[in-house]
Amino acid sequence: MSAPRRTVRLRLALLYSGLFLVSGVGLLLVTYLLLASGFPVVQLRTDVDGVSRICARQDGTVALGGEFAACAADARALLDAQRAETMRRFLLQGGIALAIMTVGSVGLGWLVAGRVLRPLRTITATTRRISANDLHQRLAMTGRRDELTELGDTVDGLLARLESAFTAQRQFVANASHELRTPLARQRTVLEVALADPTPSVAALQAVCRRVLAAGEQQERLIEALLTLARSERGLDRREPVDLPAIAAGAVRARQVPGRRVLVRLDAATALGDTRLIERMVVNLVDNALLHNVDGGTVEVTTGARAGAAVLAVANTGPVVPPEQLDQLFHPFTRLAGERTGEGLGLGLPIVAAVVTAHGGRLDARPQAGGGLRVEVELPAG
């Protein structure tokens, strides 16, 4: 047979009664000592010249001279007996009263503990009912501000963050499914059209193959971007010194777009982190600045060191970015003006933000006055 579960309420009730018992025992002991020290001694009187001694007996007679010693001994014995009996009765009655009050304190402690823990039971019951489908529920604790209401507010904050994360995850899955479905549908349509042609030519079949390969490459880029995003959000497995100017120079050399001018100023800067993730971050920033630009526009790429951090800044002269839409650009599959179609995968800047967060860095994005975007990244220096 298992022992009864020792709940917090039971432990608090026992604690309250235990403290009451200890305090009662201490009070009883102090009272006992004060009472014992307050008993009077036998009072003897002497006459004026200090020679004669008188002792009053219990029956009211007075003992003089030689009878004084016996009378005094009887008085002391009687007083000692009275004191011992009084102290015994005091301890007995005080102990009985303390035992009764201790038992009562257990019940009172049980009631008080239940009242104190009532908000905690409410928090527990409500939290147990909440699941992934109703994360919008909140505890909404009311009453006096104390530790339990602060706990309720903390749980509400946690539920809000979980709701936001679940919503973002569902949106991410829906967007990823849409983005993956588009090239698959394109491939299927192209293949069905080719198969419906009874006399296809070699050139037509080659064109179909090229279109299918292009759709496959788009899927590969999307899957690679999704894997990079997931790896960034997971965190870093290791950190090593990374030459930020060298990575930026390589990204600029490998990605030249006709009609776009790239200006570089690469000062020494060594970051501490994952080389592949930082490379992907730099490539995404350069690609985004080149892709979302205007004909004849420019892209500026600069690196440097500042206050113990490696700094990378990429700016372009693209279209005007409304400040209220700036945060949306860092959400997966979200493009300017809320469009879900257009150039790019919609994962470039979200990957940049995830990489910066994984490295414990800082990201600052600001719209340019004449159009375009300037993104500055600070990473821990190596």
Automatic annotation (TrEMBL):
Pfam families linked: HAMP, HATPase_c, HisKA
Primary subcellular site in the record, as a coarse category: membrane
One Gene Ontology cellular component annotation held by this UniProt entry: plasma membrane
Catalytic activity from the UniProt record: ATP + protein L-histidine = ADP + protein N-phospho-L-histidine
Membrane-traversing stretches: 12-35, 90-113
Location in or out of the cell: Cell membrane
Signal peptide: none
EC number, as in UniProt: 2.7.13.3
Single GO MF descriptor: phosphorelay sensor kinase activity
Name by which UniProt lists this protein: histidine kinase
